[in-house]
Amino acid sequence: MKLAVTTMCWGKLRNEKELGQALHTAREIGYQGIGLEFRLLPQEILRSPEKLPQMLTQEGLENAGGYFALRDEQLELAKRSDTRVLWIVSREKDCENAIYKIEQYVRKSSEVGISIILHNHLRTCFEKEDEIIKTLRRIPQLGLCLDTAHAKAAGINMVRFIKEYADRIKLVHLKDLRQVLPKSKIRFGRDFVNVGEGVIDFTEIISTLRDVKYDGYLMLEIDKTEKNKADQEVRRGYEYIQTIIRKI
């Protein structure tokens, strides 16, 4: 398993310099990969996404994937930035239509060498275990980005799920859940917190991933961080995860 961090931790990055600083910090801390939240990247990078591979190479970081909306034009942006894995969140209300649209998107992306992975997400058609499994069975080429906070909030038994569907898990987003609440009362910015600050047993989860020989990224994702504390939180998360890995 390798460690990555999403650019979401730094919030909206205003220019190329800020992005470069975030990448440098990630590598200096010890992360091996970076997850690209394209909606939060500087406009100058979105206009010239070809800059991204060089920036990552300069810092010795791997492109661990990116988050895009389910739009065809985004595939061109992914190709130009050499982002070969995209995690997606569908907010379509009609679940059958949502699955159909994902199926079509997976087909188009595979034609240009890009892999699509479904992010389990509260308040979508893909929050509960049975909904996720149904979609994975319908679309054999679709992988899963298992988000620990969303899964815990949805009541998914992650240890059992990981054991049963290890072959479909291509990325793991690590974030904590402050406390167990009814799903309707969950507020992402308030209740999704940095690892070790909530109720999730990450030792159990990471041990299970090791047991099933998961060799993808463990990607730290923090939904809301004060701008001036982002570096500190990203470092703290890394040290917490590393402590677990050494222990197991």
From TrEMBL:
<dbReference type="Pfam" id="PF01261">
    <property type="entry name" value="AP_endonuc_2"/>
</dbReference>
<keyword id="KW-0413">Isomerase</keyword>
<dbReference type="GO" id="GO:0016853">
    <property type="term" value="F:isomerase activity"/>
</dbReference>
<dbReference type="InterPro" id="IPR013022">
    <property type="entry name" value="Xyl_isomerase-like_TIM-brl"/>
</dbReference>
<dbReference type="InterPro" id="IPR050312">
    <property type="entry name" value="IolE/XylAMocC-like"/>
</dbReference>
<dbReference type="InterPro" id="IPR036237">
    <property type="entry name" value="Xyl_isomerase-like_sf"/>
</dbReference>
<protein>
    <submittedName>
        <fullName>Sugar phosphate isomerase/epimerase</fullName>
    </submittedName>
</protein>
<feature type="domain" description="Xylose isomerase-like TIM barrel">
    <location>
        <begin position="89"/>
        <end position="241"/>
    </location>
</feature>
